[in-house]
Amino acid sequence: MTETVSRSLERPAPIPAAAGIGLRGPYHARFLDAQPPVAWLEAHSENFFAEHGIASGVLERIRRDYPLSLHGVGLSIGSIDPLDTAHLEKLDALIRRTEPGLLSEHLSWGSIGGAHLNDLLPLPYTEEALAHIVGRVEQVQDYLGRQILIENVSSYMEFADSAIPEWEFLSAVAEDSGCGLLLDINNVYVNSVNRGFEATTYIDAIAPERVHELHLAGHSTQAYDGQAVLIDTHNTPVCEAVWLLFEHAVRRFGARPTLIEWDSDFPPLETLLEEAARAQRTMDRTHELAA
Amino acid sequence: MSSLREIQQRCYRAFLFGEADDLVPALIGTTIPASAQIQVYQNNARETFRKALLASFPVVGRLVGEDCFAGLAVEYMRQFPSEQGDLSRFGAAFPDFLQGLYGASEFAYLPDVARLEWALEEVHLEPDEAQLDAEALGAVDPLDHGRLRFTLRGATRLVDSRYPILTIWRANQPDRGGDADLGSGADQVAVLRRGDDVELHRMDGTTWQLASQFARGSNLERAFEAIGGGCAGDPSAPDLAAALRSLIGLGLIAGFSLDDPNSQSSKSKRSPQ
Lengths: 291, 273
Hints:
The complex is a heterodimer.
Chain A: E1 19-22, H1 28-33, E2 41-44, H2 54-63, E3 68-71, H3 85-98, E4 102-106, E5 109-112, E6 115-121, H4 127-144, E7 149-151, H5 166-177, E8 180-184, H6 185-195, H7 199-204, E9 211-217, E10 220-224, E11 227-231, H8 240-253, E12 258-261, H9 269-290
Helix pairs in contact in A: 4-5, 8-9
Chain B: H1 4-17, H2 34-56, H3 58-64, H4 66-79, H5 94-102, H6 109-124, H7 134-138, E1 148-152, E2 156-161, H8 165-171, E3 187-194, E4 197-202, H9 205-215, H10 220-227, H11 240-250, E5 253-258
Antiparallel strand pairs in B: 1-5, 2-3, 3-4
Helix pairs in contact in B: 1-2, 2-3, 2-4, 3-4, 3-6, 5-6, 6-8, 9-10, 9-11
């Protein structure tokens, strides 16, 4: 007689309202060798679509020790193309394997006619675009059977047809589709400088109960046609202006799961851990003041 | 007012192909001129696809140099636009793209180096199958050895070239100087995943032929006939038994089955030479 012993994996608790960091390839070995002290991790969904690939095995091992959030960069949810069901199937399978505490996508599009630009391209803020993306978010949530979060993106284009302020558009997407929001504080700042609006106006227009996660990242300044443009490059430390805006956001929203994101020119892991610690101190301090 | 579809089509042509004339009127430039807004995304596209290709083909990148590689990436992204929201398959046509450009030139080794690098990419994404059950194999009656049909591990690629691609690949790893003798002969390479690592092994001609026969689905008898194993004791004959041991030793064999003894191809039963 064969005896089968099944052991259910002890899954860490859902994503805490604390600071986490983005899990990227250069840091995998550190997380496999030890368990650096951080409250939670976020991974890019698409990097782990190959179920039996090396990266998926690594993620599943790291997942045993940390709460995990999945962050999609390729679903192209705002595209006029039909929803990519093959992509959704892979995402659904990944969700089943890793049981993420939070799941997010972007307020953007990336493909047309089946060809992908693999970028987070902004939508014009029109009634047509709003109706389109609300329908798409609903489709995705229905397919996956769970709420997703939608993240605001850095937008370097200003469409002549845009008739709705970005913050109202984002709020309406959440209100009409029932999704949550992942508010990227650096993207708010980048857009405010590039397009000339007050960043706090944006933050103050977002309903706190809709915000389930915050992102913090670095940007850089590049020259295009002789014009300085802030670009959301994720390869520099969070700047002081964004830290200030984060403090403002925490005062409005309260403590939220907050992610430190680096995606290139990766520094030592300690740099991310220090930035996460600073985000945590900001949340703790703001909480104490409010108490 | 432009429809969402029109906007997205215009963006695509502008960002990928530089055809921005009909996108400009759709933009306003409160703080950043429309031309600069478009350039940001044109630059994003070039950088996204260049970095994706370079991540898959670092050795080709080093061989051709940064500027040339950036130019190749622009041409490639236009000829072979990304078909998925994730970039894992984006480089699949790059070796053939290089073949078209360099196949008849003094740089004809580049497409083969790219094939080797793409093989590495692919096996990263494939399952790490169980090793061959040596005990079960040892239990097969020697008279039945001709009917053995070996299956190669899924996470395996066999890459052959007229050029010393493995030598070139090794010489162009980040910690190496890049010097490789292009005249040092042909390379036949097995790329396989083992655990969290991917290994590259140079194979001798006989081992290569045997692996290729197994990859085509030949059983042992048919493989030996195709390679021309000769008679036992003939010193000039390919050493097929050694080749088989080598394949097993490398971990390239995932499993085996026995062909039906009544099938046409399996009437003769002989053991490896």
